[in-house]
Specification:
By secondary structure, this protein is mostly helical. The protein has one domain. 35% of the residues lie in helices and 8% in strands. The chain contains four helices and five strands, in the order ααααβββββ. A three-stranded mixed sheet has the order 3-5-4, with no helix packed on it. 18% of the residues are buried.
Length: 124
């Protein structure tokens, strides 16, 4: 998905989510997102994406890079996904952020086994 499609899609999702909040119990509303008028966050810069690629040791998929140029993460992406895809929090699947270096080989790059984004928050 390119940046224009992400922008349209995420803006539409936010509008629909905001409209639905009037039907919910006020105690269940995400007040921060409601006040911001969006489920998104400010866009990540090129430096953020480059830092993430360096930390992971691999290039990001173009669609995820485009997503980051629109919003550095997303709130309430589903019933069990409360926060999605924030560049600073993405890590290799199975490695908590504080243990990430444990899987790095002599090249300094993470293992390539099972490579790919898992929900845009962890990489396998």
């Amino acid at each position: 998905m390119d940046i224009d499609n992400w922008k349209f899609f995420l803006e539409r999702w936010s509008r629909q989510w905001l409209a639905a909040q009037t039907l919910l119990d006020p105690e269940k509303v995400d007040e921060e997102a409601f006040a911001a008028g969006t489920l998104g966050f400010p866009a990540a810069g090129e430096q953020d994406a480059a830092a993430l690629e360096h930390r992971l040791g691999t290039a990001l998929p173009p669609s995820y890079r485009a997503f980051l140029r629109v919003s550095n993460g997303w709130r309430n992406a589903g019933r069990s996904v409360h926060l999605l895809g924030i560049a600073e929090r993405v890590h290799w699947h199975g490695d908590p952020p504080h243990r990430e270096g444990a899987r790095r080989g002599s090249s300094g790059c993470p293992s390539q086994a099972g490579h790919g984004l898992d929900g845009a928050t962890t990489v396998r």
